[in-house]
Structure formats: C-alpha cells, structure tokens
Amino acid sequence: MKFFADTADTADIRDLAATGLLDGVTTNPSLIAKSGRNFLEVVAEICGIVDGPVSAEVVALDHEGMMREAEIVRRIADNVVVKVPLTIDGLKTCKALTDDGTMVNVTLCFSANQALLAAKAGATFISPFVGRHDDVGFDGMDLIRDIRLIYDNYAFDTEILVASVRHPVHILEAARIGADVMTAPPAVIRQLVKHPLTDKGIEGFLADWAKTGQTIG
Asked: Which of 83, 92, 95, 194 is catalytic?
C-alpha cells in the first residue's frame, strides 16, 4: 500500500520523505489555509520534495471554472494531481482532464455508487473519507470493502486512496482490505512506529550497554 501524507506542512513532508516511506502527498483548501502560504508556491515546493503524486484541489464548482483552475494547477509540476469534488461537474472535469493525460483525484466520496461513477469517468484516484463516514454512524471500512469489490469486478484502474484517516487502525484495516493508497496526517503516520514493547526493549538494551562502560566509535 502506498503512503501519502495529508498535509501542506513542508517541514513534515521533508522529514517523512527522508524515511523512504512517503509515496506522495495530498492537500486540500483547509490544509493550504492552515499553512498560511500561497497555494501555488506551497504546492510547487511539495512537488519538489516528493517524486510521487501531489494532489492540489480546485475550488470552482462549475465545470468551466474547474477547467480554468486545473489548467493553472497542472502547470505547476509533472507530478501534480488535480483534485476535484465528486459532483457532476467534477466528473465532467475528471473525464476531460484524464482524457488529456492529467492525473485526477476525485475527492469527498461517501458511497460505493459515487466511487463507481468516478472510475467510469477515468479517475486516477478515488478518495473515500473513512473518518467522516465513521462520524455519522457508518463503518468507513465497509465502504472501502465495497469499492474494492466493485473495482475488482470490473478491473477498473482507479486507485482507492483511503482518506480522512484518524488512527493507525484505519491504516491497518485499509491494508487488509487491499486499498491501493492511504493518506494520513503526519502525526498518524508516526504513530505506526510506536509500540510499548519496542520502547521497553530499547530501554533494556541501553541499560545493559551502559553497564559495559563501552562506546561505539
């Protein structure tokens, strides 16, 4: 499963990229606002840090407006993915852009039917929001299972990009189901490495090493 970081914080992105774990980045208007930076500048910087796909979202709601914004966004770098909402106009935009060779991430997916439409429109990625689905009383992972089944039934090329990831269990379940990608805040990605027995083991090794009075180097 590919790991994307869901952030516009370039310091976090650089730190995670240095681990070799990071395959791409997703941003959205809220994350750009949180960064306090110019949209085009921060996306360009992120594209220079990671080689993989970097999602940058349009904000227009009509097809013509989305296409105008997409034309600006896709000129930022070759690894930019234009992110569009799962609406009729978003699907029209997805079809037009993917036909022209541009990667598209269709976002704010909350049903398997929506995911089916996005795949038929040629989406590169579909972003089902599992955390927000959980928030309103549904099981976000059931949504991922349904999408995986449908996409496998028809051999769609669209990659399932699990979004709105809140905790490590979401990532584990997405991997078990066979999602192609997950995107999570850097803090959640870093939680994956934590385990109390690992910490305890390190403490024990260091205590025993200290008793030897040795140093390395």
From this structure: 83
Cα–Cα dist 24/2, whole Å: 8
Closest by Cα among 148, 95, 145 to 117: 95
Report how far residue 82's alpha carbon sits from residue 101's, in angstroms, rounded to the nearest whole number. Answer: 11
Contact criterion met (CB below 8 Å) for 124 and 104: yes
Q: How far apart are CA 105 and CA 125, in angstroms?
A: 5
Q: Which of 40, 37, 46 is nearest to 12 (CA)?
A: 46
Which residues are registered as beta bridge partners of 55?
Answer: 26, 81
C-alpha distances in Å from residue 49, one per residue of 44, 122, 160, 197: 9, 27, 23, 33
pLDDT tens-digit series, residues 32-56 = 999 999 999 999 999 999 999 999 9
* Residue 83 annotated as catalytic: yes
pLDDT in tens, 153-171: 999 999 999 999 999 999 9
Q: Which residues in 200-217 are b (16+ Cβ under 10 Å) and which e?
A: eeeeeeeeeeeeeeeeee
